[in-house]
Amino acid sequence: MPSFGFLDNRRARLFGAALVAVLLLVAAYAAGYATPHITAPGDDSPEAGFARDMTYHHSQAVRMSFLEYDRGDATSTTGATLHRMAYDMATSQQYQSGVMETWLADWGLEALSTHGTMSWVPGGKSMLQSDGRMPGLASDDEMKRLETANGKDADILFCQLMIRHHLGGLHMIRAILDLTDRAEVVEMAENMQRSQQGEVDQLRLLLKDLGGDPV
């Protein structure tokens, strides 16, 4: 469970309650897919690589959402919408990460691997950013800027970073959909694709309302 040291007690309780709900959803999901499969994905399979890389990718989105929830301007109409979106993103991506971690456990695989980032995609190295980051991941400097931004500035930066983050995630999602026919992976990836594309469209509108540079 992530640290909530940067949140006040009220918000920590709110996120704590949300994460309990997430854990219950993960347990329910796992119960539906826990039936042993004749052939589970191997350690170097696209399914395992996607689960590992996307879980890491989601962890940054969750962190950015917590920061926006804490530091954005929730008093304006646009800011209040972002406030709600940040909460929804944090809880939904925590849930998805829990499901993917459950897959790996059910498949008898470690959560971490010695395989390289994006190695599960043929030619996946070409998808990496110039410094080796996964598609869409914010840099350390960008995260530091978000950690210190406040109000409208935080709202604008969050929109810009999350749009890029989601666009990178969508590249990864399309890649796994081309590589797998495993039912639970396809279902999860398609759900991610719908939600993230919808959030990109909404964030672009909100960014325009805020007067920020488009992404």
UniProtKB/TrEMBL annotation:
Protein name: DUF305 domain-containing protein
PANTHER family the record matches: SLL0788 PROTEIN
Annotated organism of origin: Virgisporangium aliadipatigenens
InterPro entries: DUF305_CopM-like (IPR005183), Ferritin-like (IPR012347)
DUF305 domain location: 47-206
